[in-house]
Amino acid sequence: MTINFCSLASGSSGNCHFIADDSNSILIDAGLSGKQIQLKLGEIGVEPQKLSGILISHEHSDHIHGAGILSRRFNIPIFANKGTWEGMEHKLGSIKEDNIKIFETNKPFEMGNFSILPYEISHDANEPVGFSLFNGRTKICITTDLGHITDEIKDHISDSDLVVLESNHDIEMLKAGGYPYYLKRRILSDFGHLSNEACGNAIVDLVNKNVKTVMLAHLSKDNNFPELAIETIKSILSMNEIVINKDVMIDMAFRDRVSHLYRFCK
Ligand SMILES: [Zn+2]
Ligand SMILES: [Zn+2]
User: Fold this and answer.
1) What digits encode the pLDDT tens for the residues 7-26?
2) Mean pLDDT computed over 118-131
3) Are 158 and 119 a contacting pair, CB within 8 Å?
């Protein structure tokens, strides 16, 4: 069974990830414009009308921006929990009743061969979740937009072939930068975003839980840059005697381009 995965974009200007097996093609979040998502799907040779669903992690616009238009244009169901539906319904525009799908947080559901678990994360939204997608052989988890990472989340993520994990900001850059005080506090809080350092420390635990590849995601445009995120994480891993490319692969999701396209054949 083959699974394809890539990040179409990630960052505060829009998040959208793609996963597919032989029977299903799924978007996780649709935070770019509908047109942008169509273009990026085109880059990887996917026709949007083939999508079987859009999973939404939470109602912030960088995760839902194109969801309504894609659903209307191509008749695609949107999957979210009740809290997220309440938070996003008025922003999406009208969605056909058949395309409104409600899942429950912490309860697995099936889509074709995929067993999908939406698990709770802490972020300043109604009912934010991360997703684990498992087809019996390959497991992929997507966890961005979280103020801190708990042992429960690490357990959900364990044994993943690939994890998309937020590495949002460098704490010093954020503190020294020009964001208003309330926003700095929000980002640094338990309901904000994960720092490079927190991400690095989480990866140490995830390597011990048999995670094979981590894709750093949702990097801040103003308070981070890819080289800094990678360097911070590398130094935390080496302090813990973890060797990149041997014990774990570290990759990156980009704000403005499609990531590496992974193909898992098991
Ligand atoms: Zn958010
Ligand atoms: Zn976000």
Assistant:
1) 999 999 999 999 999 989 99
2) 97
3) no
The mean pLDDT of 194-212, rounded to a whole number, is: 98
Burial of 201 (0-12, 13-18, 19+ CB in 10 A): middle
* 137 CA to centre of ligand 1 in angstroms: 30
Cα(66) to centroid(ligand 2), Å: 14
Element (H, E) at 176: helix 171-176
3-state secondary structure 192-257: CCCEHHHHHHHHHHHHHCCCCEEEEECCCCCCCCHHHHHHHHHHHHHHCCCCECCCEEEEECCCCC
Q: Which domains does the chain have, with CATH numbers?
A: 2-258 (3.60.15.10)
Centroid of ligand 2 to alpha carbon of 144 (angstroms): 7
CB of 236 within 8 A of CB of 196?
A: no
Cβ-contact 40, 60 below 8 angstroms: no
How many CA atoms does the CB half-sphere of 23 hold within 13 Å?
7
191 Cα–ligand 1 center, Å? 9
**Ion ligand 1: protein residues whose beta carbon lies under 5 Å:** 60, 145
Question: Is pTM, for the whole model, over 0.90?
Answer: yes
Task: Give 145 Cα–ligand 1 centroid separation in angstroms.
Answer: 5
- Reply yes or no on whether the pLDDT at 1 is more than 90: no
CA 161 to chain centre: 15
Token pair recorded at residue 207? 């390597």
